[in-house]
Each structure stands twice: as C-alpha cells, then as structure tokens.
What does this fold into?
Amino acid sequence: MNRKYRKTVIAGNWKMNQLASTIKPFMEELKANLPKNKTCDIVLCTPAVMVPAMIKAGKDCKVAAGAQDVSKYEKGAYTGEVSADQLADIGAKYCIVGHSERRQYHGEDDMLVNAKAKALLAKGITPIICVGESLEQREMDLTMEYVAYQVKAALSGIDAAQLRHCIIAYEPIWAIGTGKTATAEQAQEVCEGIRAVIRKIYGARPARAVSILYGGSMNAKNAAELLAQPDIDGGLIGGASLKPVDFATIVAATAQEA
Ligand code: PEP
It folds into this structure.
C-alpha cells in the first residue's frame, strides 16, 4: 500500500451468492467487527439486482455498492443486459469488468472488457478491471507479457483523467477460488509490473495514483502480508468476502503502516 499517493480499497466479489434478503444480517455482523477507524474504502460487488439492498444496508458502515458486470451497449434491444446508466441510476459506484469467470464462461475478450470499462466511466462508475494469467502461462514464464497486454488492451482509448477513476485488479486465474494464493513476492512483482506498464503509457504521476488490487484466495490470514507490499493497494476478495468476520479482518489489515 502507499496511502500517500493512492487509495487503499478492499472490495468483495460475492459472485452469484447471497440474497437481497440476507444482506441486512450480513451487514450487521460486518459492522460489529469492522475497525472504528477507516483506513480503506470498502466495496461489496453483488449481482446488479442486489445493489439497492446493499446500498441501504451498507450506509451505516460506509460500504459502497458495486456490480459485477455491465453491458457494453448504452441502451436498446439487448435482452437480459444491464447498462451502465441503469447501474448508475440505482446507485452502483463500482463495477467489476473482465473477471476471469466472465472471460472463461462468457467468452469476454480484451476488446469487450475495454468497451465495458469505457461504458462505466461515461456514467461515473469506477471499473475494477481484472487481469491475470493462467497456470500454463505462468509456467511458460509468460505472466508479465500476458498481463501487460491485458492492461494495455483494457485501457486503450482511456485518457489520464479517466484513469484516475479506474482500479486494476491483478487476479492470477490459478489462485481464484482454489485456496492457492500467490506469494506476496509473486503478487508484488506483477502489481509493480502493471504499474510500470501504466507509467509507460500515462507517465509517472498517473501511474503512481492508480490503485492496484490483488485477488486470488486472499483471506484473513494472508491479507496483512499481501497488503504490506508497496504496489498492492488492496484486495478483490471472493470467498472470504462472504464471511463477515473474515472480511472485517481483511479490512482491519489495511491499518498497518504503509
Ligand atoms: C474473485 O472472485 O475475484 C476471487 C479473488 O475469489 P477468491 O478470493 O475466492 O479466490
């Protein structure tokens, strides 16, 4: 973390879990366990349909609501899609794009991720842009090359002013939902590399200001070590974000000196 130059963000990704009706008790337990002093921004990304319930329940403990996907289209005959305008209208402040599960199960490619990020920025929603390599790519020593390509593609046509409203999440695919966490050194190395890619495109100042999160089996036990790395500005957390005490512990881990 580096609080001097950028925000620390702890974002949960609930995926297709929980119900609007279970948010209230979840938030009560979360609130009871959150530290008193705020040392990071807290976000919970739910299915779009649950965003209003999250906003209502999250007010008390200053948890912002986010969605997990958005249409690249502005409006019209796209049955089943949810537009950035519609997300903004119900109060979503963040939205994940390019999660590896969407890339894997819904065929999302880098062009689509870029279009979705732009659609969100146009409506004032912060895209949390996910990138990350597969195990095969890591074993072939292609990690940085591949992640650099993903970052460049996702940010194509996004100017420096818009970059200030973007968050990048480095999520090695092999670490998501597997219980296998990247070591703090592995995660730092790639997050530092991502910042270098951004520096090359936008210059030193914008690169210094971008929050880069790590995601992939981050939990209450390993969060502090990961968050102690200079280029890891927070976490995108799946499984552990469904457990209020664990999620609160991860939030508390941002209180360490950075
Ligand atoms: C995720 O879904 O973005 C994620 C990192 O999941 P988990 O923390 O469960 O690995």
Remarks:
- Residues 100 and 106 are 10 Å apart (CA to CA).
- The chain has twelve helices and eight strands.
